[in-house]
Design a protein that fits this description.
By secondary structure, this protein is of the alpha/beta class. The protein is built from eight helices and ten strands. Strand 8 and strand 9 form a beta hairpin.
Amino acid sequence: MVHFVGAGPGDPELVTVKGRRLIMEADVIIYAGSLVNPELLTLAKADAEIYDSKEMALPDIISVIQKKHQEGKDIVRLQTGDISLYSALHEQTEALRALQIPYDLCPGVGAFAAAAAALETEYTAPELTQSVIITRAEGRTPVPDRESLKSFAAHGATMVLYLSSALAVKVRDELTNGGMPGNTPTAIVYKASWPEQKVFRTTLLHLPDVMAQNGIRSTALIIIGEVLGEEGAAKEASRLYAPEFTTAYRKGSDETSRTGEVGKA
């Protein structure tokens, strides 16, 4: 069996309990050495075979998996963050299906969640935004026209940009050309949850300058939205825990709250 395991954003304690167990039980571990914290490998069995995939192409990875599967080995494919985002999962699972090699998926903690923790914030706020757009700027990997940053600018939702650290000028220009104000609060979280984590706060207009001044060109998330600014800090409290708000488990003092959304606190 092949287990695809999300390694989390960097802090080795942010791997899931299930992911930790799978790593500890694996006979073979193929890990993304460019991004996965090598401390996670200390969980491996003493006789586990370990392969670093950062210099391997897809056929090399699949070849190792096929060979070790034929030997009856239990295999972990250890990938950064959560495997549902920018993980190159599809092409790997397609190859395994073609070879009739069984696999399963173990999710991990996404870097966007670790970045929110570093910023000590949540990405949603009542009457400010209830949506989060997770996307990337177009670089060598194309982005569909309907998902351009310019097209997303009008939504006013919190935006979390992966894989865009080297494209800060493009990010600023596309969003401002789409109508997003230059003074929109913006943050950069470099290596979220790692010991070398750094957080920078600025505005959309000054994003490229701050990134250039601090030499940030990779392994950072860019977060843009009003939740990061004064409006976000002064955001109205959630109704869920308000004394007058009726939920499925608690009767509120205001009977009119029954006509609204039923919370499940």
